[in-house]
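Box 3.1. Reading complex inputs
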Amino acid sequence: MASSTELLYSEEHNLVRKMAYDFTRNEVMPIIAEHDRKHTFPFELLPKMAQLGFLGICLPVCYGGAGMDFLSLGIVSEALEYGDSSVRETVAVHLALHALPIFQWGTEEQKETFLPGLACGDHVACFGLTEPGAGSDVAAIQTRAVSEGGDYILTGEKMWITLADVADRFLVFAKTQPDQGARGITAFILERGWQGLTTGTLEGKMGVRASNTGWINMQDVRVPAGHRLGEEGEGFKIAMSCLDNARFGVAAGSVGIIRACIDESVKYALQRKTFGKPIAEHQLVQQMIAQMQQDLDIGELLVWKAGTLKNQGVRNTRETSMAKWFCTEAARRAADNAVQVHGAYGYSDEYNVERHLRNTKSAVIYEGTSQIHTLMQAAYTLGMREDRPLRCPMPAYDPDSWQ
Amino acid sequence: MAILVWIEQHEGQAVSNCWELLARAKELGGELGADAAALLIGSDTGEAAQQAFAYGADRVLAANAPTLEHFRLQPFAAVAEQAVERTAAIAFLTNASIRGGVLAATVACRRSAGIAANATDLKVEEGRLLAARTIYSGNIHAEIQFESSLAVASVRPRSFPMPAPRDATGTVEDLNVGPNEDEVRQKISEFRATDTGEVSLTDAHIIVSGGRGVAEDPPKGFELVGELASTLGAALGASRAAVDAGYIPYKHQVGQTGKTVRPDLYIACGISGAIQHLAGMGNSKIIVAINKDPDAPIFQRAKYGIVDDLFKTVPALTAEFSKRLK
Amino acid sequence: MNVAVLIKQTPDTAELPRVTVAEAQSGQLQATMVINPWDEFAVEEAIDLSDRFGCETVAISMGREGETDALKHALAMGVDSAVHVDERVIDGGDEWATAEALAAAVKKVDTGEEVELVLAGKMSVDGNSSVIYAGVACKLGWDLLVNVTRIVDIVDGKLIAEQAFEGGQETVEVPLPVVISVAKEINEPRYPSFMGIRKASRASIPTLGRDDLEIRPSSTTRWTDLNKPEPEDVQVRIFDGASVEEKVAQLADALMAEKVI
């Protein structure tokens, strides 16, 4: 019998769901706890994900992608994060924060040059916006790009960059007009091996330990003009449009965490006995389980709504922000409750729930903190914010031309 | 009228589970007024045929020929059908091994007979033979009544107690050996016994299994578990988690996607007791759990437990038994 | 030579413990239904054979009306076509009626060339009987190899395979046509590809019903007294002690007293 989730989606989506969850259960879950414990990146998963087409799932076949839609991206994100946030992050950063912006803003030549290698995983890519002194306040970035003989010379430092030490392609934002604030930012595609570009890994993270997080340092890195994405000064808009892609994956992934927390808590609550009965029969445990289920049901609908708008090519900054805000907070709640249901064992890394709890604390910070989303939603509702059309909107999903 | 039991042989040796089945056939035959008949098919059935009398057979039928050296379905099924006819069998029983299962199914289908595959019990009620078996991977039990004149069952190893041999002999009835070599379509070009002296899981009286608890040093962990197994003359088992993680080959896996076992003693070392694992060993007579997590579900099914690190407990247990079993 | 692979739609293994007696009796399950995991090995082998020998592959599954998720999964993995057999053709009959229906379907499917090889998984996670493929071989009058761990070659109308059994392994040669049940060791089933998923979701799967297959009724067994065993609530005895040596000595005493060692 179809679950309510399956009814929201087409048969194609439900086949994707089974495939992606099978992948997570068979390939991710057996190895990920150990990687998390050791703070190591699961390199062995990259070729497997590339081979299945995860790294280019919602890129058209003509650019080497799998030609699937944005709902499929959501489903795969959900399934991967059911296993661990780090694995979903890899897809989000590589695809949503690097390949999709090229697909959206790039020239035809740039798409043909860059996308096939990204879609098949020959290149692994990341996104460099945040700096030691500029996170939510994007206009405050310090990285400079100076025009010189048709090229640009980039100097600066990026921090908290997922896949910094793994990637060989970098979408980096730098100021071409330092006095212009947000309007002075331009986007560039950098390649590993270029002189002056170095990367490193940041240690001591609370969560997402099986992901690579690091820094990118640029000392007079020469970037050809053909590697500039979009127009000069268009970087801020590009960065914000990237967030519409990535936040969607974060929201969908959080739904996967809630589902994992429910599955593990239900299993444990039915098995573990206190005071002569399974703890599932204690009402305060039931309350926590019910809360998780409520959050799951709401989260699924918000993700489905945002993904459907994306498929239709409708601007969805507002809906995606809402989905990201709600789902990440709900996932943090669910993980917190799941640890509580598991009691002392939940606090130990013998069970997955403590890892989810550490991971979800990161999700309410990255891709716009919950506070940023709160302000955005207030502004939309109060009529203080309006999204103006972009020069290059993300195209609607068109099965005929994408496949 | 007879209850016919196929005595499976490996390298000329009878598979001991078949004697359990033969002894049960003798009891059932007593209630139904049928002989317990043993069927041997092979190129060297002499010794096993005499053993069959010792384990309770009223009649022993044998087909002996070079064509029957290795199990091949076509000639074996032909001989088995012949034996069913010769003895006017009301039941044909096999050990639920890979070959026993396929021989039972083939004979049953050819004779339009009802089959209880992988049965766990056989009994007589109101003059009728009934078989018990499980479906949904052990989660539902069912009884099977036969509506056909011949009842066929393949029966799980260790479903009945092992009988003690009697001092009995008899005359073996020779069967027609079936098709000659030219007519046998299957040709075996290479045959390797993979039995390395390890006790096989499904036959074992004692199983010692290791699970994810060995993770901090898997080779050492399974070395310790293996030492305990060999001290006890036990088979070595493993949970799916240990097999999936590559600590030990699949053939050792116990559980829903591995082997179903029912030994007298099952010692689970560092196995949490996932439902899928319990499905494969939950019917063991005595379960012992060694786990450092006192809340591991395995303790809810175990009769005895030690809450401690297996890397300390298992070698201590090996030492203790080496002392006592000397 | 074309290849048919027999598959079944069964409950997700994780949900098997939740199957109730009423569901088992009616066959109407609440559980998520997926392709029987053992059958994935057969599907993978069929696809692999089509790559090696250029044969066409068809998946056949008997089930309720519209029960085609397992067939869609096989299509998504890469089989060329799929055929659904409406279970009403056997009218509630037994394993042999099922086998006859599947054998008739193997004869009926139109894949261009004749099907000369039928592949099946070693058992279903719901029925647990491992007899259907044996029945199919009987009804077709074909040879049968079981628990095959490798198909070495198909040459001159003969198939060479390795099959494993308790305590041994053999290489066997048999003329086509043949029915084969495959073991887990034979391969590692692939995940469906996105292209396969698109193809599968668009495929319309033909059904063979009473008008297409005439099956003799067969009902050789009656299932009675279905029940769900409740695990006994064994009270575990945990041995305490100051040292591991003390604990294991108590355990050894207990096991010696039980006479299991």
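In summary: The mean pLDDT of chain C is 93.
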